[in-house]
Design a protein that fits this description.
about 25% strand, about 90 residues, 4-stranded antiparallel sheet, alpha+beta, Protein Inhibitor Of Neuronal Nitric Oxide Synthase
């Protein structure tokens, strides 16, 4: 069964291409790792490599946040019950 991400346009401040890339990072990560911290680390390292440092990534089913981020570098989406928050500082 294909993995489906849910992204609302108001939950991102990046281009559609960049958002698709981050969702791809997340799909690859959840197919490769079981621990949320490892999923987050994979996404963060992939983003750092492709878009330059310094990216932050939070992955989990229950969290709240308040962050400042660089313009055009914020995304929040879900895959199943798991939420993904990525942003560049």
């Amino acid at each position: 069964m294909p993995v489906k991400a849910t992204l609302k346009k108001e939950n991102t401040d990046m281009s559609d291409d960049m958002a698709r890339t981050f969702i791809g990072f997340a799909i690859k990560a959840i197919e490769s790792f079981t621990l949320e911290k490892d999923v987050a680390t994979f996404i963060k390292n992939s983003a750092d490599q492709q878009y330059g440092i310094t990216w932050q990534c939070v992955v989990g089913q229950h969290f709240a946040c308040s962050v400042s981020f660089k313009r055009r570098s914020f995304i929040y989406f879900t895959i199943g019950p798991t939420a993904f928050l990525c942003f560049k500082t």
